[in-house]
Specification:
With 397 residues, the protein is α/β, with parallel strands linked by helices. It has helices at residues 19-29, 60-63, 77-89, 101-104, 109-115, 140-146, 149-152, 167-189, 201-206, 212-219, 254-263, 267-270, 278-283, 285-296, 301-310, 321-326, 328-332, 374-380, 385-394, and strands at residues 10-13, 33-38, 52-53, 56-57, 67-71, 92-95, 120-125, 196-200, 236-240, 246-250, 315-317, 336-340, 346-350. A hairpin with a 2-residue loop joins strand 3 and strand 4. Helix 1 packs across helix 8 and helix 6 packs across helix 8. The chain is elongated. 34% of the residues are buried.
Length: 397
């Protein structure tokens, strides 16, 4: 078996909840050693988020797999000194506190860079480390709103809704992991020093907004909510079937559009020169949606999907958790993995993305109990047994 692609990379994770830990999770899945620092007592608040088993979130089993847990009270000088020692041996430090927090603990970039010039520091915050909003508290939902996503997630004229997961945080974590890899590449290939990766939640969301801004800049058009449709790209929508299910049909490629129209018995639309390109189809999106909807309304969801599969038209249905768990394609691609809770109960968790052919990601360690690795990590850092006993007595660890 090939060694993991990030084998030998040591990551010090100071963040909590979602964005920073999500970035560290990705790095850990590809071989980096991740040492997660949590406050003694309660630990990372994610341990208590969503549904709990024996007092701990099952989400924890995904977000913190492959990590080691060190319990340190970062508000105390002794813990700050330990972090400085750990940072000297780390390649990457990840944090997602409000800007200025680490500086108040003597753990800011200037201090740590002086101790370890090669250190790469990922800083995720609501609004970034600079700018007039830098000191505002920011969670993923605020980033989703400011980044432009929340305005679009609604039916026209109705209240905008959440996506249903913390997509702003996860997007920020994904961008952060990319930034870490770029900085490590620069350090290794170009002989460069470490650097700061400054990721703002709202910017990670805004980065995904496609043509939102240039359309406003060029035409003064403010894109509005469109429900299940994709404005300016047609036909693509959710179409109700006879049994109450919805088929998601993407017939917006030129050739695909023709095959779709032929399959639903609308050869007249397939051969209409005005519909040969997307610009023409977008102008007549309502007409096309009506034609497709009339066809799907007379057939069950399975019949619709079967017919479109035969016609090589991209189509699918809306999955819930049960659909995902029972789908053979997910399992064939190892997107559902087996894990065990601390009490031995088997649990299924999401697989690893992306899939590398030679150095795939792996789950080497289950999510740790709070502070499970504190003493081992401190011993490796050169802290004596007597000092560990004293730190524990003071509540530092």
């Amino acid at each position: 078996m090939q060694p993991s692609v990030l084998s030998g990379i040591r990551v010090l994770e100071l963040g909590q909840l979602i964005a920073g830990p999500f970035a560290a999770k990705i790095l850990g899945e590809f071989g980096a050693e991740v040492i997660k620092v949590e406050p003694p007592g309660a630990g990372d608040p994610l341990r208590k988020w969503r549904l709990l088993k024996d007092g701990t979130s099952v989400w924890w089993q995904v977000q913190s797999r492959n990590k080691r847990s060190v319990a340190l009270d970062l508000r105390k000088p002794e813990a700050q000194a330990i972090v400085r020692d750990l940072a000297k041996e780390a390649d990457v430090l990840i944090e997602n506190f409000r800007p200025g927090t680490l500086e108040s603990w003597g753990l800011g970039w200037e201090e740590l860079h002086a101790l370890s010039p090669g250190l790469v520091m990922l800083r995720i915050s609501g609004y970034g480390q600079t700018g007039p909003y830098r000191d505002r508290p920011g969670f993923g939902v605020i980033g989703e709103a400011m980044g432009g996503l929340r305005h679009l997630t609604a039916e026209p004229g109705r209240t905008p809704v959440r996506v249903g997961v913390s997509i702003g945080d996860s997007l920020a974590g994904l961008h952060g992991a990319l930034g870490v890899l770029l900085a490590l590449y620069h350090r290794k290939v170009n002989g460069g020093e470490g650097q700061v990766i400054d990721v703002a939640l709202y910017e990670a969301v805004f980065h995904m907004m496609e043509s939102l801004l240039p359309e406003y800049s060029a035409f003064g058009v403010v894109r509005e909510p469109s429900g299940s449709a994709l404005p300016g790209i047609a036909p693509t929508n959710a179409y109700r079937c006879a049994d109450g299910g919805y088929a998601l049909i993407a017939g917006n490629g030129d050739g695909i559009f023709k095959r779709l129209m032929v399959r639903i018995g609308r050869e007249d639309l397939a051969e209409d020169p005005g519909l040969a390109g997307n610009d023409g189809r977008a102008a007549r999106a309502a007409e096309l949606d009506a034609a497709i909807g009339a066809w799907s309304a007379t057939r069950s969801l399975d019949e619709v999907l079967g017919a479109l599969d035969e016609a090589r038209v991209p189509a699918g249905c809306i999955y819930n958790a049960r659909d995902i768990a029972e789908d053979p394609h997910y399992r064939s691609r190892d997107m559902i993995l087996q894990a065990r809770l601390p009490d031995g109960q088997a649990i299924e968790v999401p697989g690893i993305v992306p899939k590398l052919s030679l150095t795939p990601g792996r789950v080497e360690r289950p999510a740790p109990a709070l502070g499970a690795d504190t003493e081992a990590v401190l011993r490796r850092a050169g802290v004596s047994e007597a000092a560990i006993t004293e730190l524990r007595a003071k509540g530092v660890i």
